[in-house]
Design goal:
About 35% of the residues lie in helices and about 20% in strands. It is built from 9 helices and 11 strands. The strands form 4 sheets. Strands 1-4-10-11 form a 4-stranded mixed sheet. It is elongated and about 75 Å long.
Length: about 260
């Protein structure tokens, strides 16, 4: 599947007016979404889905001609001063040795790549739908939690953009740069997921730190204007309703606080 990666402004992208995050008020980290007005840009190493942001590059599926292009690129990056004859010999030796077919080497490199990448990238997972039963059960303490609705434009402008997750019966085959553009590889790794996760109807935004991110880096404070509404779970206790309402008024201000039954 060909992918168009948009480098324009938010005016060039279709996204819902409000995006939502399901949270558990009895979880101290989740409370910070209200009490500190923070969102947490998670490392994919923390994700439950073993393939989320982890679709491997299939070096072993390259043809010999593609492998030649791949090794030529690597050689020019690593040893730019080689003569043409030296470079051709190096490439031919690697192809004859079928390095790109070596399963162990490929696994070792994939692990190194993802370890480095996940130290530097942060993902905020959201959804366009506030009434997803499975999400209330899975991420909002089985309807005892809450769901924050954000003004998507303000949120995305603050965090750097966002896009809709696409779901597929089979994950795409990724081939290395220059066979496949590096931006396309990373886009598919971040925004393509297996069909079984389609119930989440996910939108997500990402942030990248060239020098790696600490936990403090990943907790990002957002402006009050980014908050649109908070929906209270249908089984939230009266004590928690009072507690979260006071926290919203104190830390965010006068936004809509709605009972689940009045929305869903």
């Amino acid at each position: 599947m060909e992918v168009t990666i948009n480098h324009g402004t938010l005016d060039d992208i279709e996204f819902p007016e409000i995006v939502y995050k399901y949270r558990d008020w009895n979880n101290d980290w989740n409370k910070k979404f209200i009490t500190e007005r923070e969102v947490y840009m998670a490392s994919p190493s923390q994700f439950e889905d073993k393939l989320d942001c982890k679709i491997p590059v299939s070096y072993e599926m390259m043809t010999e001609n593609q492998a030649e292009q791949f090794y030529d690129r690597l050689s020019r990056l690593a040893q730019p001063n080689l003569s043409r004859q030296q470079r051709r010999k190096e490439i031919r030796d690697r192809i004859n040795a079928k390095e790109y077919k070596n399963e162990l080497k490929n696994e070792q490199y994939q692990k190194f790549y993802f370890d480095q990448y996940f130290q530097r990238i942060g993902i905020l997972s959201l959804t366009a739908e506030p009434c997803l039963d499975e999400m209330w059960k899975k991420y909002a303490n089985d309807n005892k939690g809450f769901c924050v609705g954000y003004n998507s434009r303000i949120l995305f402008e603050h965090l750097g953009g966002g896009a809709k997750v696409e779901y597929f019966d089979e994950i795409p085959i990724l081939l290395p740069d220059p066979i496949m553009n590096r931006e396309e590889i990373r886009y598919k790794q971040v925004y393509f997921k297996e069909r079984k996760w389609e119930f989440e109807q996910e939108y997500r935004t990402q942030k990248f730190w060239f020098d790696g991110a600490t936990i403090d880096d990943r907790n990002i404070k957002i402006p009050k204007e980014a908050f649109n509404t908070v929906i209270l779970g249908k089984d939230m206790t009266e004590e928690d309703k009072l507690d979260i309402t006071n926290a919203i008024r104190e830390n965010i201000g006068e936004i809509k606080i709605i009972e689940h039954k009045n929305v869903c």
